[in-house]
């Protein structure tokens, strides 16, 4: 399931222009549900419920941790949002594995919203991608040394959200305007409040690790099943994280359509339930850590439908030294980042002849 600029330099979600805002300092974590989840806040005035919903939101001040050594804050009307899903097994998430005292970014997507906010591109970064992680400062102010040839998801593990953002900015040369994180339990509850998400499988999916068992056909997945789907990897395609990304991208499109079609505006009780689940599910950056800010952000994205979202995976190949890892294809990755930096569509040539995971079409 993104950060900001220095001391609150951010682009307005509604109008596309950045304006200076005082940075808030609050304590400091799939896009499966990150940016899309807050769309449920964009429907109607929640008035009386603002204070209660505000209490659900705990933001992280990434600007303060990152300082000024960042890519330029390009003012072209677009937005770039880093959405992470954490694989922490602490608390209620313990049902999904042993708590080993840390967390990694289980899902990472860079969401680029084009000028005018009518279409978007989403770039999924495989968690097993070997990268050069820059030095950074974690949420406690501790310096974290950079390292070469480490998995992308270790950035979050060793330095938290700010280190993940800095790693993405180092890879892409693009400044992230916002950060949104979604956890396992919050994701499930949001889907259940939504009434489930309808997907169609073209092949059986049976995965012991994600506890998912689906026959071919159309299904309305509840929260538990949805989480199982976006965590499935061993039983689809080549069993890699790349195949799982393809399932996540298909699910995200279905989720966006479901949110837009849910029709909650005439049902304040249901709207509040969705808003309550959404605000509990996400950890945003400090410029989105109130209901008012989230609603402005959500309304700025409300014109984007699933048909206007292009989803790709960062161009990678299997690492010749370790087939269980992938490495970016440098020339094609540069094409992707250059296009987004210029607010242009990602060229088809950027994703040709890349490793895919071979799970395309399993879910639609």
Describe this structure in words.
With 364 residues, this protein is α+β, with helices and mostly antiparallel strands. The chain contains 10 helices and 18 strands. The chain has helices spanning 34-37, 50-54, 62-66, 154-172, 184-194, 223-231, 241-261, 268-281, 291-301, 330-341; strands at 10-11, 18-19, 79-86, 105-113, 120-124, 130-133, 136-137, 143-144, 147-151, 178-182, 197-201, 205-207, 212-214, 217-221, 282-284, 309-313, 316-319, 322-328. The chain has a 6-stranded mixed beta sheet with strand order 15-10-3-4-5-16, with helices on both faces. Strand 17 (316-319) and strand 18 (322-328) form a beta hairpin. The longest helix has 21 residues, at 241-261. 49% of the residues are buried. The model is unreliable at 1-39, 41-46 and 89-101 (pLDDT under 50).
Radius of gyration: 19 Å
Question: Any low-confidence stretches, pLDDT <50, length ≥5?
Answer: 1-39, 41-46, 89-101
Structural class determined from secondary elements:
alpha+beta
**Given the structure, what is the number of helices?**
10
Q: What is the N-to-C succession of helices and strands?
A: EEHHHEEEEEEEHEHEEEEHHHEHEEEH
The number of strands is 18
The biggest sheet amounts to:
6 strands, mixed
Question: Residue share in helices?
Answer: 25-40%
- In spatial order, strands of the major sheet run 15-10-3-4-5-16
Question: Which descriptor suits the 3D outline?
Answer: globular
Average pLDDT, to the nearest integer? Answer: 81
In percent, how much strand structure appears in the residues?
Answer: 15-25%
First-last Cα distance: 20 Å
């Amino acid at each position: 399931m993104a950060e900001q600029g220095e001391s609150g330099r951010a682009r307005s979600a509604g109008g596309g222009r950045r304006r200076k805002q005082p940075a808030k300092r609050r304590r400091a974590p799939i896009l499966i549900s990150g940016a899309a989840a807050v769309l449920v806040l964009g429907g109607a005035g929640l008035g009386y419920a603002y204070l209660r919903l505000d209490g659900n939101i705990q933001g992280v001040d990434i600007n303060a941790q990152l300082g000024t050594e960042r890519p330029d804050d390009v003012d072209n009307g677009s937005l770039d949002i880093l959405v992470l899903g954490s694989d922490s097994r602490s608390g209620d998430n313990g049902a999904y594995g042993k708590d080993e005292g840390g967390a990694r970014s289980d899902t990472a997507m860079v969401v680029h919203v084009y000028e005018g906010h009518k279409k978007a591109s989403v770039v999924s970064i495989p968690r097993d991608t070997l990268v050069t992680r820059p030095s950074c400062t974690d949420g406690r102010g501790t310096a974290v040394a950079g390292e070469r040839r480490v998995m992308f998801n270790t950035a979050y593990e060793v330095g938290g959200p700010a280190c993940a953002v800095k790693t993405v900015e180092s890879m892409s040369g693009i400044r992230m305007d916002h950060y949104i994180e979604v956890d396992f339990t919050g994701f499930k509850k949001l889907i259940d409040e939504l009434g489930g998400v309808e997907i169609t499988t073209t092949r059986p999916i049976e995965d012991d690790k994600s506890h998912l068992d689906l026959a071919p056909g159309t299904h309305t997945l509840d929260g538990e099943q949805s989480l199982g789907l976006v965590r499935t990897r061993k039983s689809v395609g080549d069993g890699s994280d790349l195949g799982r990304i393809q399932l996540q991208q298909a699910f995200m499109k279905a989720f966006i359509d479901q949110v837009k079609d849910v029709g909650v505006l005439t049902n304040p009780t249901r709207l509040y339930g969705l808003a309550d689940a959404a605000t509990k599910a996400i950890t945003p950056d400090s410029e989105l850590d109130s209901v008012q800010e989230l609603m402005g952000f959500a309304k700025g994205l409300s014109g984007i439908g699933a048909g206007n979202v292009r989803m790709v995976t960062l161009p990678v190949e299997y690492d010749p030294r370790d087939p269980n890892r992938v490495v970016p294809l440098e020339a094609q990755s540069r094409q992707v980042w250059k296009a987004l930096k210029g607010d242009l569509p990602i060229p088809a040539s950027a994703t040709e002849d890349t490793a895919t995971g071979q799970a395309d079409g399993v879910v639609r």
